[in-house]
Amino acid sequence: MSELKTEEEQIEAFKTWWKKNGTALVLAVAVGVGGYFGFQAWQTSKLNHTSEASELYQNLVQASADLSVEANQKTVTFIAQQLNDDYSDTGYAMFAKLFSARVSAENGEYDQAISTLETALANTEDASFIAITNLRIAQLRLQTKDFDGALAQLNQVTAAEFMAQKHELKGDALIMQGKRDEARVAYEEAEASLATGVTHPLLDIKLKDLVKG
Question: Could you tell me the pTM of the whole model?
Answer without folding.
Answer: 0.74
